[in-house]
Amino acid sequence: MSGASPRGPSVADRGTWPSPGAEAAAHSRRLAGVIGSALDAAGGWLSFADYMQLALYAPGLGYYAAGADKFGEAGDFVTAPEISPLFAEVCAAQIDGVLRALGGGEVLELGPGTGRFAAGALAEFRARGTPITGYSLLEVSPDLRSRQQALLAASDEPPVDARRIPPRWLDSLPAPFRGVLFANEVIDALPCERFVMRGGAAWRLGVGRAAGAARDDMPRFEWRARPADGACTGDAGFVAAMAQRLDDLAAAGVTLPEGCCGEFHPQLAAWVASLADVLEAGLLLFVDYGLPRTQLLHPDRAMGSLRCHHRHHAHGDPFLWPGLQDITAWVDFTALAEAGVAAGLEVAGFTTQAGFLLGGGIEARLAARLAPPTAGEAALGEVARAQLAQGVRRLLLPGEMGEAVKVMALAKDCGAPTAFALQDLRRGL
Ligand SMILES: C[S@@+](CC[C@H](N)C(=O)[O-])C[C@H]1O[C@@H](n2cnc3c(N)ncnc32)[C@H](O)[C@@H]1O
């Protein structure tokens, strides 16, 4: 996986962005046309959340709704399940503990990407004899859903547990169930609002048509800041969300200077409430890039956390070739905790990815894989050994994903997985 970049902020090298081929450029032009029409219909200004919704999820055209490779070396970025099989194994072992404590239950995975986490988790459940009654995958992208189905069908390990329970794909949230809902790097792909500080107030940073004629029939977009004065849809919600955030920052002694930008996910509370509604008892387990609020919205991050990814190049321009690049913003874990509590859940655990994986025994698993084979076992080749060790390093190292990615458990009538015992960061929320 060397050279492949994770979705966290990394190099800002928009200048070396590879040019798309003719077909990809035409695809992007079609999506830009759809976005331009939405922008015109909205009176010339579109919230960034609406832009991001279309850029990522416009049916048949958005980045996640269309067909190009996104994950891995041939794609745009890598995520933890693609970096190392031990990620899914450790998470599944922790989920196993929760399901046992519940006396058995289901797993629902949101945004399963390529399906690699599901394949690894199902293999681990099989190996452990986990009391799992079903594994559901909820994917908003039809393209990714078919990739998941192909991968799970071709998976070496049959994608069923010992009692042959096949995974099933859902179009919407299921009826209430007992068990675990798991989501890796899904919240940072939800549409976000963006703000900029002007004269001590938060202005909405939305999208307008760029001045000058469109080139090659390609509509061009640019940032447009305006005060949230009630003239546009969503202004009232933006004002309320920003008032709460600025109050929290003031209480912590943080003042955002003129020109400072930031983001938040306006759908988060409603989304978490809808997830809490389908959980009779058990856990919502989220893994994502992010920070507590007072560290995320901070003068040290004056340009916010918005990042775009294409072919392992990371940069900050979401208007470049819409539909051909991923767009993400870090998660405000204070907001996630607040959303959980408002939905009747308990914040049962909050730690770094490194803390969670180390607490879940990833080192012992790695050591066991790297140990000399016992009689009858096939030896792992040198390349495979090096890749395994390097993958785990990328998951754990502070300069890679170890600290930037956090894990949060929101619980209903259920204890926290044991992996949270190593490092408890809840007081920082
Ligand atoms: C960055 S990918 C992460 C994929 C995978 N979890 C992984 O770790 O490789 C984000 C995923 O979230 C999905 N997604 C976005 N919004 C969603 C929603 N509201 N519900 C479920 N999945 C969603 C996307 O389609 C995509 O599969």
Describe this structure in words.
- With 429 residues, this protein is α/β, with parallel strands linked by helices.
- It has a domain of 294 residues: Rossmann fold, CATH 3.40.50.12710.
- The protein contains 13 helices and 15 strands.
- The strands form 3 sheets. Strands 1, 2, 3, 4, 9, 13, 14 and 15 form an 8-stranded mixed beta sheet that branches.
- Helix 8 crosses helix 10.
- It is globular and about 70 Å long.
- The relative contact order is 0.16.
- It binds S-adenosylmethionine.
- S-adenosylmethionine binds next to helix 3.
- The site of S-adenosylmethionine has 20 residues, from helix 3.
How does the major sheet shape up? 8 strands, mixed
Please count the beta strands (DSSP E, at least 2 residues each). 15
Helix vs. strand class? alpha/beta
Share of helical residues: 25-40%
Approximate strand percentage: 15-25%
Order of helices and strands: HHHHEHEHEEEEEHEHEHEEEEHEHHHE
Model regions low in confidence, pLDDT < 50 over at least 5 residues = 9-14, 159-163
Shape call: globular
Span of the ends, CA to CA: 33 Å
CATH topology of the domain at 69-192 and 260-429: Rossmann fold
Please report the first level of CATH classification, the CATH class of the domain at 69-192 and 260-429.
Answer: Alpha Beta
Number of H- or I-type helical stretches: 13
C-alpha Rg (nearest Å): 22 Å
Query: What is the arithmetic mean of pLDDT?
Result: 91
The bound ligands are: S-adenosylmethionine
- Oligomer designation: single chain
Please give the CATH architecture of the domain at 69-192 and 260-429: 3-Layer(aba) Sandwich
